[in-house]
Design brief:
The complex is a heterodimer of chains A (about 240) and B (about 220).
Chain A: E1 2-11, E2 14-24, E3 29-33, H1 40-46, E4 55-60, E5 63-64, H2 72-76, E6 79-82, H3 94-104, H4 110-123, H5 139-151, E7 157-161, H6 169-184, E8 189-192, H7 196-202, E9 205-210, E10 213-219, H8 220-225, H9 232-242
Parallel strand pairs in A: 3-8, 3-9, 6-7, 7-8
Antiparallel strand pairs in A: 1-2, 1-4, 4-5, 9-10
Helix pairs in contact in A: 3-4, 3-5, 4-5, 5-6
Chain B: H1 11-48, H2 52-67, H3 70-85, H4 91-117, H5 120-128, H6 133-163, H7 175-186, H8 189-218
Helix pairs in contact in B: 1-2, 1-4, 1-6, 1-7, 2-4, 3-4, 4-6, 5-6, 6-8, 7-8
The chains are: A alpha/beta (about 240), B mainly alpha (about 220).
Chain lengths: ~240, ~220
């Protein structure tokens, strides 16, 4: 579904990604973790070309992102993305947030977009909030609307960039519940997150990053059950976040 | 001893001299505001485009306009446009073109700041949903930017209304000119200029009060 080959990226002379390679297969749930500043968010943003990269290649659904002929907006419309700070459009109602891109990008009619969008809003349990504005919702609710907004574009894969990091602890659960449900339905997902509980529960594979490199890329059982076989850096990280 | 004669402050003074000038000042202000915002937005988008073929001309234009006095631009355009098109165009039209061109530079800076006030993540979110640059600007960034900018727009418009008095340089008939002619005809320039100052004050002061009220209403809840 998504294939990264030796992706490298620089901000000026500072290298943020070094030779990152991995494959995310259809139906797979991949969790990316690592200390802050390790390049996780940058890596996931390169997967739908929100962040340009200078070397290597990324192929999404058979289409190369580096090819200048690639229609990036069209490709992105098939790749759902959820952000740390929700990024709902504050000047539009919840319903308009769900329908705008469906109409303008996919060319759906108002009615069709509305029916489709509200279906997903119901699925994240927020149908009652359809006429509110994002500013009137809690953080957890906003993030669930953001997930519904991404889903209403019928994506072939969903990318999550620290979806629970900006939430109050009591709201993390409601967002993770939605994500777990999605994973159980067979959605292909790639999540940057520190929620190791989520990784254990529904993840298939864990990628561990440090200083812009992919250090570990192995299946869940290996990652959590054989920590002493992991790199020192990963062991250190795991012992810190699993200690609490 | 100097004494004021206010006996000619009446309705006839208003209808015969002031009204025509007032209407032209208002018309000039409104056209220059709308035109300034339209061209100013275009200039702002050029400056933010990141393409040097667009950035440099727009930057040069804005910096030039912002660095020379408005009176000079008014005079220049009055002399230059007829030379370029080979026929006189009259003070009113010349003033209108000049004000649109001049205000575009000022509004472009306001719009630029407004666009930059919209968090970068909003643009990312729009792009991630597959929107093109144009759709992103039209549906996501500019609506939010304009809402943030409304109070500043209105303040700029008030300044613009005062600045319209500078068309005296090319002899256009604006609000101030109306007072000036009335003063000459009645032989009481001091009194008419006092009335002129009072008129400008009432208009601009009440407008700025309205701006303050609106300021709190348009803010977007985040």
């Amino acid at each position: 579904m998504i294939e990264l080959r030796n992706v490298s990226k620089w901000y000026g002379s500072f290298q943020v990604l070094t030779d990152c390679s991995t494959v995310i297969n259809k139906g797979e749930v991949v969790v990316i973790c690592g200390p802050s500043g390790s390049g996780k968010s940058t890596l996931i943003k390169t997967m739908n070309a929100l962040e340009p990269f200078q070397q290597g290649e990324i192929v999404v659904n058979g289409i190369s992102l580096h090819d200048p002929k690639t229609n990036l907006p069209q490709l992105r419309s098939r790749v759902g993305m959820v952000f740390q700070h929700f990024e709902l459009f504050p000047h539009l109602s919840v319903t308009e947030n769900l329908t705008l891109a469906q109409m303008k990008v996919l060319g759906r009619s108002v009615e069709k977009a509305k029916v489709h969008g509200l279906k997903y809003l119901e699925r994240v349990g927020l149908l009652a909030q359809k006429d509110k504005f994002p500013g009137q919702l809690s953080g957890g609710q906003q993030q669930r609307v953001a997930i519904a907004r991404a889903l209403s574009m019928d994506p072939i894969v969903m990318l999550f960039d620290e979806p629970t990091s900006a939430l109050d602890p009591e709201m993390v659960g409601e967002v993770l519940d939605v994500m777990v449900k999605l994973a159980n339905e067979g959605m292909t997902m790639c999540c940057v997150t520190h929620e190791m509980g989520f990784a254990r529960k529904v993840g298939h594979r864990v990628i561990f990053m440090d200083q812009g490199r992919i250090i570990e890329d192995c299946n869940k059982a290996e990652f959590f059950d054989n920590p002493h076989e992991r790199s020192l850096r990963a062991q250190e990280f795991l012992s810190k976040i699993l200690a609490h | 001893m100097f004494s004021l004669d206010l006996s000619f402050y009446n309705w006839e003074l208003f209808t015969n001299y002031i009204l025509k000038g007032f209407l032209f000042s208002v018309q000039l202000t409104l056209i220059a505001t709308v035109g300034g915002i339209v061209f100013g937005t275009a200039l702002a988008l050029m400056r933010l485009s990141g393409r040097s073929a667009l950035v440099y001309p727009a930057t040069f234009y804005v910096n030039t306009m912002r660095s020379i006095p408005l009176v000079m631009v008014i005079l220049w355009f009055f002399l230059l446009i007829p030379m370029l098109i080979g026929q006189p165009i009259g003070a009113d039209l010349s003033a209108t073109i000049t004000f649109i061109a001049f205000e575009a530079a000022f509004f472009s800076e306001i719009v630029r700041a407004g666009i930059q006030s919209v968090p970068r993540g909003q643009g990312f979110a729009a792009e991630a949903l597959g929107m093109t640059y144009g759709q992103n600007m039209r549906f996501i960034v500019l609506p939010q930017a304009f809402r943030n900018m409304i109070p500043v727009f209105m303040t700029q418009t008030i300044i613009l209304f005062q600045d319209t008095s500078l068309v005296y340089a090319i002899g256009a008939y604006d609000l101030l000119k109306g007072f000036e002619i009335a003063g000459k005809n009645y032989g009481r320039p001091i009194e008419t200029y006092i009335l002129a100052a009072f008129t400008y004050f009432i208009i601009c002061f009440s407008l700025s009060k309205i701006v303050r009220k609106i300021q709190f209403k348009v803010a977007i809840i985040r």
